[in-house]
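Please describe our next protein:
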Amino acid sequence: MPGPVVVAPWVRTRLRAFPGAALALALLVAVTAFLAAAFPRAVEAYGTDGLRHRIASADPRDSVVELGVRTDRSTEAAHVAPEPLGALHEAVVGALPEPVRADADQSSYGVRTTRPLPAAGGGLPAPDGLPPEFTLATPSDLARHATVRAGRLPAGRAAVTATEVEAAVTTGTAASLGLAPGSVVRLPRDGGGPLTVRITGILRPRSPERAYWSVEPLLRTPELTARDTAGAPRYLWSAALLLPPASAPALLGTGGEPQAFWRIAPGTGHLTAGDAPALRAAVASLSGGPDLTAMRRTLGTTAVVDTRLGELLASYDAMRSAVGPVVAVAAFGTGTVTVVVVAMAGGLAAARRRDELALLRSRGGSLRGIGGRLLAETAVVAAPAAVLGLTLAVWLVGSGPVGYAAAGAAAVALVACAALPLRAVYPLRRPEVGGGRDDLVAARPSRRRTVAELTLLVLAVGAVVALRQGAPDRGGALGGGAPGGGVLGGDVPAGAAQDPGGVLTGAAPVLVALVAALVLVRLYPVPLRWLARPARRLRGVVGPLSLARAARSSAAGVLPLLALLVALTTAAFGGSVLAGMSAARDEAAVLATGADARVAGAGEAAPLPPAVVEAVRGVPGVREAVPVQVEYGVPLAARPGVPGSMSVTLIGVDPEAYAALARRGGRGGFRPADLAREGPPDGGREPLLPAIVSPSVAELTGSEQRLVQARAGTFRMRVAGVRERTPAVPGADFIVVNAAHLAYRADTVLLVNGSMDGGELRAAVRSVGGGLSVLLRSQARAALVASPVQTGAERLYALAVAAGAGYAALALLLSLLHGTPGRVALLARLRTMGLSRRQARWLVGLEALPQALLAAVGGASAGWATVALLAPGVDPARLALVAAPGLAPPAGAPLPADPWALALPAAGVLVLAAAGVLVLAAVVAVGQARWVVRRGSVGELGAGGAR
C-alpha cells in the first residue's frame, strides 16, 4: 500500500528555490521602511531642537517669567529678608505648571528699585550736566555669578532707616563712571539725609549674556540714555549698584519704588515638540488664569506676572506652520516614488511568474488560494525587513514616541505584501486566449482609465487653486502667516476652501506630475509613429528596430515614468522654494545692515565718537564709510481728512555720499539735489526741508508740508521722493533729509562697504572706544538661518529629494529588467541573422532612448509648469524670514522660476533626468546585450515563441 503523499511547504520551497529574489525584496523593504520611519522622527527632532533653541536663544527679557510684588516703607523689613524671599522662591518654582520648569542656575530673586535715583554731589561723569541715575538691586547668589576683580563682595545688614550701605559694581559700570573700591555714591532717601552707598568691589559677570545678567542688562552694563529737554537732546548715564541681600530693607526707605522680584529662567532640556501646546497653555494660565491665582495666594494679591514667552511660542508655531508645507511636499513626493517602486517590484515578480500562476489557475487553483500563498511568501520576507528598518530608524534618528514611525514602517510592509498578490491575481480573473500585444502604441485607453485620469486632473486643479488662493497678500499657502490661518498659515479670503492638514496642498506638485505623466503617456505614441516611416528608409536595421522596440514597450511603462516625473517635479518645486528662500535671506541681511557692515552705539541713539569714521576708513579693504544720523520714534501727524498718525524714523544724511551708497546697493537711490534746502516758508521760523520718504509716510502726509518735531530739531517737511527702502533702516516708515540742515547734528550709525576683514574692522572700532557694536552682513545672514526648524526642514527636504532620485533610478532599472526576457530572445534570434555585436549594443541602447528622453524633457517641463502654476501661492521671503518678519518685503517676493533656481537645489535629480537616466539605461541595456552575445543563441531560439 503506497504511503501518504508528502506535500512540500509552499513558502519554504519558494524561498529555497529563489533566495536572491527574497533577499532583494527584503533589502528594498528594509530601506524603504527605514526611510518611512525616520521621516516623522526627523520632523519631531528638528521641531524639538527648534523649540528649545527658540527659548534658549531668545533675549532673556522675552523668555523669563518674572513675578513682582510692590513694596514700600509700610512693608515689614522681615518680608524682604533673604530667608523669606528664598522660601517664596522655592514655593514659586514648585508651583510652576507643567511643562514650565525653572533653570535653577539662571533664576534669581531679590529686591530692586523700579524708579532710578539721581546721584547727589559731584565727582561722577555728567556728559550734558545731568547727574547719573542708579538702580539699586539685591540679586541672590551674586558670588556664584561674578568674579571679584578688585576689592570684595558687599556685606552687612541694613534697616529701613539705614543711611549707609555697601555695594559692588561691574567692570563696565566702573569703567564708564570712574568707580573703584572706596568710591562713594550718595542717593536721595525718604525722610532724612542721603543714602550713602560705599563701593567695596568690582565684579566681572560670568556668562553675561545669560538670564541672570541679561534680564535687566543695566545690572552689568551702564547705558547712555537721552533725556527729552527743550532744544538739543541731553544725555546721562544710567547704571546699577548691587547690594547684599541682607541690605534689602534699606531700599524701602528710598523713593525708588522698590519691588520684590522672582525671575524664573525657563529650562529647555526636557521640552519636546509635542510639549508646545501644553507649554502655550501653561504660559497663558500663568499670565492670566488659574496659575496666576495660585501664585497670588503664595506671594500676595498684588503679585503680577510679566513674561513674553507666549510671543516666543507664537513665533515658533508660525515658523513650523511656514516650513510644514515644504516638508509635506517632500513627504508626498518621495512617498509616491517609493510606492511606485515597491509596486513595480511586485509587478516584476508577477510578470516573471505569469506562466507558473496561469498553470496553477488552469489546474483548479482558486484566486483566493493563489493570492493567499503569494501573500504568505511575501509577508515572511517583508514583515521582518520592515521591523528591521523600524528598529534602525528608532535607534539612529531622533527620540521620543515611535507611533508615527511604526505607522510608516507598517504602511511600507503592507504595500510590499499586497503588491505581488494583487499584480499576480488580477490578470487571472478570466482566462486569456493567446497573448495579445500590450504596448504603448497599440493600447487603447479604457473608459475606467479615462475616468481615473479625469479624477486626477480635477484633484490637481483643485490643489493648484487652493494653493494659489491661500493668501491674496502674498502670504500664500506656503507663506509665513499666523498659525491657523490660510491654507497653511496664510490669510484666506472669505469663502476660500480650508485645508487644515495641508494634505491637498502638499500633494499639489505630485498631482501635477501625475497628470503630466498621464498626458505624456497618451502623447508618446504620436512621435513614434511620425519617426517610424522615415526610419524605414535608413540604411541598416538598428534605427527601425529600435523604434519598433520602443513602440512595443509595455503599457505598464507609465509607472517608471511617473516615478521619474514625481521625483523631478518635487525636486524642481522644492529647489525653487529653497533658492527663493536663500535669495530672500541675502536681501534681508542687506536690509538689516544697510551695507557690508554697520557700526553703531547703544540703541543707535548715542552719538558716534568723532574719530571712528577715519579709523574705519583706514581699515584695509574699506571702500566707503558713510555716517548717518538716525532717530527712531519721531511722531508724525496725519494730514486733514486722513485718520491716524504714525511713528517714523528720521534719517539725516550727507546727500552725495548717501545717494551714492543707495544707488550702488539698489535700495532707494535718489538724486542729491532732491534734498536741497528750500528755505523757510511764508516767513516762518522753521526751515522747509525736502525729504525722501517711504510710501506709508507719503500716503499719510500727501503733498502738503508737515511739521516734524524731533530731537534733531524742528522743521517742516515736503515730500521730494518716495522709495520703498533705504539703507539706513530696515523698517518701512522713514524720512530722509539733509543732515546739514538739522539744528542738532549727531551721527549715530556708520554704514561701511568693502571687502574688509571683520576682525580688523572691530579692532579699529574698539580703538576709539565708546562701546560701539559692529554688525557684519555675513553675521546677519547667518542669524537668519540659525533656527533648527528652518535648517532641519531644508536638510530634510534635500535628503528626501536625494532619496526620491535614488528610487527613481531604481524604477528605471526595474523597468529595464521587466523587458529582459523578451530582449534576450530578440537579440539571440537577430544574432543568427547576422546582427553584429556592435549593432546589438546600439539596438538595445537606442531602444531605451525615447522613454529616457521623454522622462528627462517631461520632468523638466513638469517641474517648470509646477513652479509657474503654484508660484502665486508661495512666498519664499515669508518662509525664510518668518522669525524676522520686519525684514521681509512688504509685498512678499515672487518664487523664482529661472533655470538656475530650478537646477541648483536639485542638481543631482536634474542631472539624472538630463544625462544620468540615459547613461544608466545604456549601461544596463548594453550589459544585457553583451551577456546574450557571449552566452550564445542556441538556448534562446527554442524558448517560447511568444516572446
